[in-house]
Design goal:
3-stranded antiparallel β-sheet, single chain, 56% helix, Arc Repressor Mutant, subunit A, elongated
Length: 107
């Protein structure tokens, strides 16, 4: 293969790879909104103490700006996805292990 044909083939390959990478990249969205502790607690439907507990247990990411503790809206979405996934997926036989009346055999 001549040098020109090889260079052209490599150029086409590089462009094809770049096109694939661009197609797979998520669209650029607006940056996260930073929520106060009260706003974050309200968004999650929990109290301030419970929210601080989740932050302290490192289950909810937060940042400190000056003296204020703030929670990014993306961190709330990640927290919901991480805590809701086990409840949705569950474990095999979990319903019968809980002893629901409709799961028990009748005599």
């Amino acid at each position: 293969m001549s040098d020109d044909r090889l260079a052209l083939a490599l150029s086409e390959l590089v462009e094809a790879i770049r096109a694939e990478v661009r197609a797979e990249m998520p669209p650029v969205s607006a940056p996260d909104r930073l929520l106060s502790i009260d706003e974050a607690a309200k968004a999650l439907g929990i109290g301030r103490s419970a929210l601080y507990g989740e932050i302290g247990a490192l289950r909810l990411r937060s940042i400190k700006v000056g003296r204020r503790r703030l929670v990014a809206s993306g961190a709330i979405a990640a927290y919901i996805n991480e805590t809701a996934a086990p409840a949705i997926i569950g474990t095999p036989g979990a319903a019968s292990a809980e002893g629901h009346a409709h799961d028990r055999p009748t005599a």
